[in-house]
Design goal:
The complex is a heterodimer of chains A (391) and B (479). Chain A is α/β, with parallel strands linked by helices. Chain A contains 14 helices and 13 strands. Chain A folds into two domains: 209 residues, no CATH class; 160 residues, Nutrient germinant receptor protein C, domain 3 (GMP Synthetase, Chain A, domain 3, 2-Layer Sandwich), CATH 3.30.300.210. Chain A starts with a helix and ends with a helix. Helix content of chain B is 46%, strand content 13%. Chain B has a five-stranded antiparallel beta sheet, sandwiched between helices. A five-stranded antiparallel beta sheet of chain B has the order 6-7-9-10-8, sandwiched between helices. In chain B, strands 11-12 form a two-stranded antiparallel ribbon. In chain B, strand 4 and strand 5 form a beta hairpin. Classes of the chains: A alpha/beta (391), B alpha+beta (479). At the A-B interface, helix 1 and strand 1 of A face helix 10, helix 14 and helix 15 of B.
């Protein structure tokens, strides 16, 4: 018994360090950061714990936005305490939305603050507010998933698993891209549809057709840690495939007069680099499934299947070529990570040519090999139109 | 003769329960002495008085009454006594004593049946197994064990303990299986006992185990003869105490609290699953409140966001710290449990309604506890009820509170800290010289075959080497 008492006394020496009752915490789910007039404008989305599942709190909002502003990020976050009665608790941060202004000029400050903050979990996603302010985007009340942060996070998750038009990156991964001198940052972006004022009212989710909502947009391209532009949807798909981040994507290719839509999955991209010839051979392998056939063709015919297969491959090749062209020429930003591959292959070469990489990158020749295996055609064996005509 | 009667009357303060009847047989005076509450009057009149009358009629000449009575009386258990102490002893054991003029005496067994008949067990119920339980009478209990183990090797040592109660204590073991040193050790400890009375077997239990050193029991109690027999065959010792329906089984290990009698009869694969559930329940009942408090007050980042939000919304109306909340609920549950054990059956339904209302609906509505806390405490409480041994439940309860204190002070680190302490404490424990954590530490492959999983009966063909030198218990020649 004496031993037990002694041990319990040792426990008391810690003085309940880090004790915080759940009631005293303001759980931060999303943060929006904007930069205006030499000031950081921070809006913090806090989960409203009083919102219960019962009817008595039906009118309570699911989350509350606190705003503050200061010349540095830390000060801005501390100033929130002026308005929030509870301590800000950042471990459950899910979404960080930054304005284009931040993305263009203040990425360094942002990374420093969030990497230094011990409480923030490094699993949150960063997005760029494309056509409105971050504050507006996190304030929108969303249906189905009540908490708008979770809503956005789920959007990214679902998109990367089904369409791959945006990129799913945690803060940690983005920070690694930032620290690596041979890589460029890419971030997903977010658009606001409708009016932001109305989107913040409870009536927004009282209708079946929600007018005001957020929509995932395409990948934002950085160069030297500064935002320079956005890819198109097709190019985003291409970039995801090149970065081996796409599991499943859709490709619609023209066949004769109409479209054939196919889903491609199990995509694996391999790079083979020849440093001195400045040549990159890209091999993309994967499976494709026919999802929709609009033309009057017989898919039972092996010849037709071969044609379709080639068609899909060509379409994918076009997408990849477009993507590479855009990154190479339009933005001249090495988001595919070719520089990193060069560095791993031959560090000395890259060290010598580090300063004129932009020029080298433009000269690199890409050879694209695509090998897709069509292995599923769906339930109607021949194509519905063909079956109907040849009944 | 008269002197003895005088002495007896004086010592018992002329107790009216003791009947002294004078009878003249063959013109010789004898005393028939018996203790009325303990004897059956039928037996006395049928077998003793009638036999004596017959003797009186048959023998007209002067005879040696002592030997004639010894031979002719219709009773199967006769003891010859020649000192005063024995007279007293047999008198208080329900014997009828015939005292002769030359101060010799004969004692005839005329016990009244004071114990209830064999009924089904109440504290260790099973679905499929023998349904008899020990009763208060040690003779019946001995019979119940002997009926299951019919061998000369079932050895019994009888010891009288208790200066006032003179209780019969029987130590059972199987001679060619049980460790001799263990038997000797236990026997010595039993003989050392110097106490006024033994009313129940638990008195012996408390005297021979280190009562206050540890909360977990190093001696198991059971009212099932089949469990006692199984333990004997494993190489354990069973102690039966007169007037107690609970046999003591020793040594007892931590692993034994996860076993139930029924496990011996079930299919190995199904038993293994049940065992796993008991293991999980053990840790649930030990750790759930502590881990919940730690997560909710220190380590909120451990939870998925959705769950944290749900916890926060449930806790938002509760003004107390989580630790106090948990303590309050555990306290009220323990009060409820204790009162449920004590009150007579007819008021238990009222109790359960009040309990359900107070612990459930009303406490939440009043904002004293959060719904999640009720779930935590319920799961904890239900899991504890899996263990039949009350001592185990109480031991778990003590450690649960220690875990909770640690988590309230240091969070998850505190829980881990106390958990290490808990394991150390258990592994430093011995049950009659055998490590308490057998077969986990020290590891015994044979023992592990019947631990958190149970292998098929064919594969369990050896005894635990820590219990018995006679290892082979079953040889599976048929395949």
């Amino acid at each position: 018994m004496k031993k037990i008492l002694l041990l319990l006394l040792i426990l008391l020496l810690t003085g309940c360090y880090n004790y915080r009752e759940l009631n005293d915490l303001a759980i931060v789910s999303a943060i929006g950061i904007d930069y205006k007039d030499n000031n950081f404008e921070v809006s913090i989305q806090i989960v409203n714990p009083k919102k219960q599942q019962d009817s008595s709190s039906a009118n309570e909002p699911d989350f509350i936005i606190y705003k503050s502003k200061a010349k540095t990020l830390q000060e801005a976050f501390r100033n929130v305490v002026d308005t929030s009665p509870n301590r800000i608790y950042g471990s459950h941060l899910e979404i960080l939305i930054i304005s284009e202004e931040i993305a263009k000029n203040h990425m360094d400050k942002l990374f420093d603050f969030f990497a230094r903050e011990p409480e923030a979990r490094s699993e949150f996603n960063i997005l760029i507010a494309k056509n409105s302010t971050p504050n507006d985007q996190i304030s929108i009340i969303t249906p189905l998933i009540n908490l708008s942060a979770t809503n956005i996070k789920t959007l990214i998750e679902t998109n990367s698993q089904n369409l791959a038009t945006t990129v799913k990156l945690t803060f940690n991964e983005t920070f690694n891209q930032y620290l690596n001198p041979y890589l460029e940052i890419i971030l997903p972006s977010l658009e606001l549809i409708g009016e932001e004022e109305k989107g913040q009212e409870q009536e927004n989710i009282a209708q079946t057709n929600t007018n005001n909502k957020v929509k995932l947009s395409t990948i934002a391209i950085f160069k030297n840690n500064k935002l320079i532009g956005y890819l198109s949807e097709e190019e985003s798909k291409g970039l995801n495939i090149l970065l081996n981040k796409a599991n499943i994507s859709l490709i619609s290719s023209k066949y004769h007069d109409n479209y054939i839509v196919s889903e491609i999955d199990n995509i694996k991209t391999k790079f083979d680099i020849d440093v001195y010839k400045k040549e990159v051979n890209i091999t993309i392998k994967g499976h494709s499934i026919i999802n929709e056939v609009n033309s009057n063709i017989n898919i039972k015919d092996p010849k037709v299947i071969d044609n379709i297969d080639k068609n899909i491959e060509n379409e994918l090749k076009k997408i990849i070529e477009n993507t590479i062209y855009t990154t190479q020429n339009t933005y001249n930003s090495d988001v595919i990570g070719i520089r990193d591959m060069f560095y791993k292959k031959d560090p000395n070469y890259l060290k010598k040519n580090y300063s004129n990489w932009d020029e080298i990158f433009k000269q690199i020749k890409f050879n694209i090999n695509i090998d897709l295996k069509l292995y599923e055609k769906g339930n109607t064996t021949g194509g519905s139109l063909y079956e109907k005509n040849h009944y | 003769m008269e002197k003895i009667i005088e002495k007896l009357k004086k010592e018992t303060n002329n107790l009216s329960d003791i009947i002294y009847r004078i009878k003249y047989i063959n013109n010789q005076k004898i005393y028939i002495i018996y203790n009325e509450p303990l004897v059956s009057s039928d037996k006395i009149s049928d077998f003793i008085i009638r036999s004596l009358d017959n003797i009186d009629k048959t023998y007209k000449n002067k005879i040696d009454l002592y030997s004639v009575i010894l031979n002719d009386i219709n009773n199967f258990k006769v003891t010859q006594i020649n000192n005063y102490q024995d007279i007293v002893f047999y008198l208080h054991n329900g014997f009828t004593i015939i005292l002769f003029e030359n101060n010799t005496a004969l004692a005839f067994e005329t016990k009244r049946n004071l114990s209830r008949s064999i009924s089904s067990p109440t504290t260790e119920t099973t679905l499929r197994s023998a349904n008899d339980a020990f009763v208060e009478d040690i003779q019946t209990n001995t019979g119940l064990i002997k009926r299951r183990i019919k061998t000369n090797n079932l050895w019994i040592k009888n010891i009288q303990i208790g200066k006032q109660s003179n209780t019969k204590v029987s130590l059972f073991y199987i001679n060619n299986i049980t460790d001799k040193k263990l038997v000797k050790k236990v026997e010595e400890q039993l003989k050392k006992i110097n106490i006024d009375s033994i009313i129940d077997s638990s008195t012996i239990k408390n005297l021979i185990e280190n009562e206050n050193k540890n909360a977990f029991p190093t001696i198991a109690t059971s009212e099932r003869p089949d469990r006692a027999s199984n333990a004997l065959l494993e190489g354990k010792i069973v102690i039966l105490v007169d007037n107690s329906p609970f046999a003591l089984i020793l040594p007892n290990f931590l692993n034994d609290i996860f076993k139930s009698t029924e496990d011996n009869y079930g299919k190995a694969i199904n038993v293994s699953f049940t065992r796993l559930i008991r293991f999980i329940a053990f840790f649930i009942t030990l750790l759930t409140p502590a881990v919940y408090i730690a997560i909710i007050t220190y380590n909120q980042e451990m939870l998925p966001t959705q769950l944290l939000i749900s916890f926060a919304s449930q806790r938002s109306l509760v003004p107390f710290p989580a630790f106090f909340e948990a303590l309050l609920m555990i306290l009220s549950f323990e009060i409820l449990r204790e009162s449920d054990l004590r009150i007579p059956n007819f008021s238990s339904s009222a109790l359960s309604i009040v309990g359900a209302l107070i612990l459930g609906e009303a406490a939440v509505n009043a904002g004293i506890v959060s719904p999640i806390m009720i779930i935590v405490i319920s799961v904890t409480a239900i899991s504890a009820l899996l263990f039949t041994e009350p001592e185990v439940i109480y031991a778990i309860r003590i450690y649960r509170i220690i875990f909770m204190l640690a988590s309230a002070i240091m969070g998850l680190i505190g829980v881990i800290f106390i958990f290490i302490f808990f394991i150390l404490k258990l592994s430093s424990l011995y049950s009659f010289g055998k490590p308490y954590l057998i077969p986990y530490a020290p590891t015994s492959i044979t023992g592990l075959k019947n631990s958190f999983i149970k292998l098929s009966t064919k594969k369990q063909n050896k005894r635990n080497p820590y219990l018995s030198k006679n290892k082979i218990k079953y040889r599976s020649d048929t395949k």
